[in-house]
Write a structure and sequence with these properties.
InterPro entries: GH, GH_1_N_CS, Glyco_hydro_1, Glyco_hydro_1_AS. This protein is 37% helix and 14% strand. The protein is of the alpha/beta class and 470 residues long. The model has no long low-confidence stretch (mean pLDDT 96).
Amino acid sequence: MALNFPEDFLWGGAVAANQCEGAYLADGKGLSIQDVTPKGGLGPVTPEPTEDNMKLVGIDFYNRYKEDVKLFAEMGFKVFRTSIAWSRIFPNGDDTTPNEKGLEFYDNLFDECLKYGIEPLVTISHYETPLNLAKKYDGWRDRRLIGFYETYVRTIFERYKDKVKYWLTFNEINSIVHAPFMSGGIYTEKDKLTKSDLYQAIHHELVASALATKIGHEMMPNAKIGCMILGMPVYPLTPNPDDVIKMLERDRENLLFSDVHVRGKYPAYAKRLFKEQNIEIKMEPGDEEILSNTVDFISFSYYMSICESADPTKVAGKGNLMGGVPNPYLKASEWGWQIDPKGLRYILNTLYDRYEKPLFIVENGLGAVDQLVEDETGNKTVIDDYRIQYLNDHLVQVAEAIEDGVEIMGYTTWGCIDLVSASTAELKKRYGFIYVDRNDDGTGTLERYKKKSFHWYKEVIKTNGKSLKN
């Protein structure tokens, strides 16, 4: 099959502010929830930042962004996905006046991207709720966060409306079900949260997201506002009808979020879900009207698929944030994430069949332990053929989905430059085309080196996918 990508396909890469910027207290920035999770978003929370938290320095993107954006431009990026650190703009989250130095940093970053013809794709809230909002209000459990988020959104829309065309409201919004502190800033321990507490917080986020979409359309008529979900195809472990029903239920747990974003209301199946799990949501007057403000496109991350079984003796797969049962037909990465390129084609078709809205793959990549070596010319590099193979195989399936008739806006690889892992706060779990000389013990020069995959991806973009091996 010929690999045909649209001429205006947005090729690029993705990062998150909290995983790359560092400078965690620079120029008036406040603390975020990331500053107190030294072992990653799934690990323990400390009362205050500790020196062993790799994110406090990250890869020093805050000070080196010009060097890094230049490297992205050399690869030919059409788009660069990043996030705004909420606590750089409103240090406490509930401030009434924004921090000008924080606003200036993103002005400079977006200008640098635009200088090279790279469109910024900006996530408004990417796992970095201001710590004060978590401690003082218990994060998104408190309805007042909708107002704080609205103030933040209006501020950045007004400031960057002439620089940013593509916006995402929340990163992997459905992950709050499994990671309530990292995803929702909920300070109450996960095992002490009731289902009603959790889904009330989810409701607040969904209302805030729809409100941001409404405000964005009013303030920036030419902008595109999207939702962002953790994309996770679910397969039945066997053809046993009980497994198929279990798959359906698990799939709906994720699709609930995109259903509300795209259809503008809670789906019919939510009534049964809420009834059977004794979930009560307090909906204020006007919430339903706000939810009717639907997104322009759906973006998602894709790293793996999972299986589900009605058999309670099956064990959840190691490393899978969203649980599930290991698929006996798939291999796994060093972190236990099962590798399933065809699952990307499957979820692209599933989402497009369901919604008929443009899709954007905004995260996909392979975390691996890379070895820095010298090439034949004496330059330092990484021979990451495993990453090239992974990305090639997934992009071939994107081309298959396009052939299927799916409308896909673009593709941004996760961690286009090495950064600190969200789930484990490691730097040895590398994703990038660019190696950053920093280690988990904090040593390293922070120098940047082009990996073999850097040159491979440059050719993929240059040929608009024609160089991929089918």
